[in-house]
Write a structure and sequence with these properties.
By secondary structure, the chain is an alpha/beta fold. The protein has helices spanning 18-26, 47-51, 57-65, 83-99, 119-132, 137-156, 172-178, 191-200, 211-231, 245-251, 253-264, 270-277, 295-314, 320-332, and strands spanning 7-11, 31-33, 71-74, 77-79, 109-111, 160-163, 182-188, 240-244. The protein contains 14 helices and eight strands.
Length: 337
């Protein structure tokens, strides 16, 4: 067994099982799962982009203090109540929703770091980052992350953190530099189910609108994750573990579970095992992509998925063998196909 992990990043394509895996690990006495996707360390214009030279410190700080701190998601728009104009837009949108009930209006959802971090601690941590980043960007980035999130683990009496922003795999090369102790768990899922799950939670114009575009969206996010994996230095590849949601909930439950525990250097525990027992195929909405589609349409979507799997294999994606294995198990469970 490996030494116990001190920091775990769980990432993937989104709608692939990152949240449920973080919740599973949070049941262990060692790990405190951060209850939200923090994003500021791995998403575009985040810490990884700053360290990689793709974003300026000023652009990062602006997004950290506004969008990542507090935003209101209303349908396809994410509004930030900063300044007179920003507050007016949020207020106007909320008034509009109250005046037009029953028209399929989406209720606003408030998101951001404010959900788990007190404002005083946030401001102090950001100020320390600003003071240090010019002299030692890597150390300042590391300190910012832990200044913001370490108290969550301390309050829970746990020594290690688990963070579940999907982009952590795409940002793995830079995160590996910032956090030499970090381990990365890349969780993947059948692209048909992952894509359709995104359709059900569609928030932005570029998000998929049907099963076919869902596969394409999933494949593009997988491409970004693959770029991150390939960008890891060879010694850091051992810090990456691949797991399939379909394996955990259906295909090879005990094998996938045991491999995950071994990678993280921990033993099974009753609370974690109890949660794992509830991670079933039904709970994960496995094969939900079939809903509302006739046999011919299902065949069309499957052909599209098979073509995508073929391409992933030709291009040498590290997750292609696992996805293929899970897909073939699924085929075997439908003999009529």
């Amino acid at each position: 067994m490996n030494e116990p992990a001190d920091l775990v990043f769980v990432g993937g394509t989104g709608r692939s099982g990152t949240t449920v895996l973080s919740h599973l690990l949070d049941r262990h006495s060692r790990f405190r799962g951060v209850p939200i996707e923090c994003r500021f360390h791995c998403n575009p214009k985040g810490l990884a982009d700053v360290v990689g030279g793709r974003a300026t410190i000023q652009a990062f700080l602006e997004k950290l203090r506004t969008y990542w701190w507090y935003r209101v998601r209303i349908g396809p728009r994410a509004l930030v109540p900063v300044g007179v104009v920003g507050r007016a837009r949020v207020a106007g949108s909320r008034v509009g929703l109250r005046l037009r009930p029953g028209r399929g209006a989406v209720q606003p959802r408030v998101r951001g770091l404010h959900e788990v971090i007190p404002r005083q601690r946030f401001d102090a941590a950001v100020e320390r980052f600003e003071a240090k980043c010019a002299d030692d960007l890597l150390q300042a980035s590391r300190d910012l992350f832990y200044d913001l999130l370490r108290p969550l683990a301390d309050r829970a009496g746990k020594p290690a953190l688990v963070e579940m922003s999907p982009f952590t795999i795409a940002a793995a090369p830079e995160l590996a530099r910032i956090f030499p102790e970090a381990r990365f768990v890349h969780i993947v899922r059948d692209g048909r189910d992952s894509g359709v799950s995104k359709v059900f939670l569609r928030e932005k114009a570029h998000h998929p609108s049907d099963a076919a575009s869902g596969i394409d969206f999933w494949a593009d996010r997988l491409r970004q994750a693959e770029q991150g994996v390939r960008g890891l230095e060879p010694p850091d590849r051992d810090r990456l573990h691949l797991v399939g949601l379909d394996e955990l909930v259906w295909g090879d439950r005990e094998g996938a579970y045991a491999d995950l525990l071994d990678f993280l250097g921990v033993a099974d525990e009753p609370a974690m095992r109890e949660f794992f027992g509830g991670m079933t195929a039904d709970a994960a909405h496995r094969e939900r992509w079939r809903e509302g589609l006739g046999p011919a349409e299902q065949d069309e979507i499957t052909a599209r998925y098979e073509a995508t799997l073929d391409r992933l294999e030709r291009e040498g994606y590290h997750c292609a063998p696992l996805l293929r294995r899970s897909y073939e198990r699924t085929l075997a469970s439908h003999p009529s196909n």
